[in-house]
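[step 3/7] inverse_fold.run input=structure_tokens len=356
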């Protein structure tokens, strides 16, 4: 019985994004019955899945990974980090320069460069986290500094050179591993999600994060350190940004700080909101944020297939997202709850009257 209740609660929390996803799926099926058709193509003797659905799953990978980290910062701090894209440019520069200096590109050098990249993003995110957790600055204001200058720092680290990372290992990270039909970026989304799931399952960090987001004072009285929890959230976000940046660099095979993870900040925040998470902190679901990321990418792909120009896509996305977010707002939820309670009360009254 407890399992059924928890499953029902999970579905209710994800009701809005699931409805939005269903609407998009139905619209695309009516507009183009072949929209979700998946085919198997062969490239250099290796099978690969192809189609709009595969493109959506692949293209949303960076957004899904960053959205998971953004969810934790939002839950613990009650605010959002708007510097994830620009710090991603810094991460990309660190990754490329470390890789170039370590010699020939191999699996080991890529892993080493990734670790250095993670360390760099953790330090930058700890800077943001310190402003938020120690100096009590609102997250969006605290992260505005790196939002403004992050890409310039990326250019400074990378210099004027545009390094070409022509390597089978880089290609395998950005596209797919030979013989594996599913894209590597999607596999990395699964890996990051699985690691976070195990981390929360084996520790009490999920509970502590939600407690801090709901009431810091009460959390402190219960022995939880809000400062440490907030800093940990920024550390995890930093690692997510590093992984997303490496995927972005591997896709292009080079680094352009100006375009790497460009405008991903707002999409990440919207993915968190669409996923049913409170932007004011507290209870969160990573699965909702990941679902929100795929909804945003499906909307983008749908508009592209309809012939909407790239300069107009963000306007159409904004309209659709406003509708989705408004539908999941506390006001609308309260209204539906009140209507449900009113109907239940009427049904109970009618039942009592019939008995009498």
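[step 3/7] decode complete -> sequence:
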């Amino acid at each position: 019985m407890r399992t059924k209740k928890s499953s029902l609660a999970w579905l209710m929390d994800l009701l809005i994004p699931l409805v939005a996803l269903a609407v998009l799926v139905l619209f695309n099926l009516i507009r183009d019955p072949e929209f979700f058709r998946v085919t198997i193509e062969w490239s250099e003797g290796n099978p690969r899945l192809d189609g709009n659905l595969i493109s959506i799953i692949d293209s949303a990978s960076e957004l899904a990974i960053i959205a998971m980290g953004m969810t934790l910062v939002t839950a613990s701090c009650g605010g959002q980090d708007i510097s994830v894209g620009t710090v991603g440019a810094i991460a990309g520069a660190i990754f490329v320069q470390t890789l170039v200096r370590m010699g020939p590109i191999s699996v080991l050098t890529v892993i080493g460069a990734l670790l250095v990249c993670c360390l760099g993003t953790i330090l930058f995110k700890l800077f943001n986290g310190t402003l938020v957790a120690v100096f009590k600055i609102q997250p969006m204001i605290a992260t505005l500094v790196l939002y403004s200058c992050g890409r310039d720092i990326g250019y400074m680290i990378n210099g004027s050179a545009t390094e070409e990372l022509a390597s089978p290992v880089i290609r395998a990270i950005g596209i797919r591993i030979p013989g594996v039909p599913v894209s590597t970026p999607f596999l990395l989304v699964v890996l990051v999600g699985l690691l976070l799931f195990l981390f929360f399952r084996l520790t009490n960090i999920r509970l502590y994060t939600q407690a801090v987001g709901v009431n810091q004072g009460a959390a402190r009285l219960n022995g939880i350190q809000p400062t440490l929890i907030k800093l940990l959230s920024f550390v995890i976000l930093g690692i997510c940004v590093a992984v997303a940046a490496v995927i972005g660099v591997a896709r292009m095979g080079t680094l352009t700080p100006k375009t790497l993870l460009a405008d991903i900040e707002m999409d990440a925040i919207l993915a968190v909101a669409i996923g049913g998470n409170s932007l004011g902190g507290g209870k969160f679901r990573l699965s909702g944020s990941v679902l929100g990321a795929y909804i945003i990418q499906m909307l983008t792909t749908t508009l592209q297939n309809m012939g909407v120009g790239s300069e107009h896509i963000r306007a159409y996305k904004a309209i659709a997202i406003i509708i989705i977010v408004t539908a999941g707002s506390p006001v609308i939820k309260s209204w539906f709850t009140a209507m449900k309670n009113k109907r239940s009360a009427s049904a109970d009254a009618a039942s009592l009257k019939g008995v009498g």
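[step 4/7] annotate
The mean pLDDT is 89.
The CA atoms of residues 304 and 311 lie 11 Å apart.
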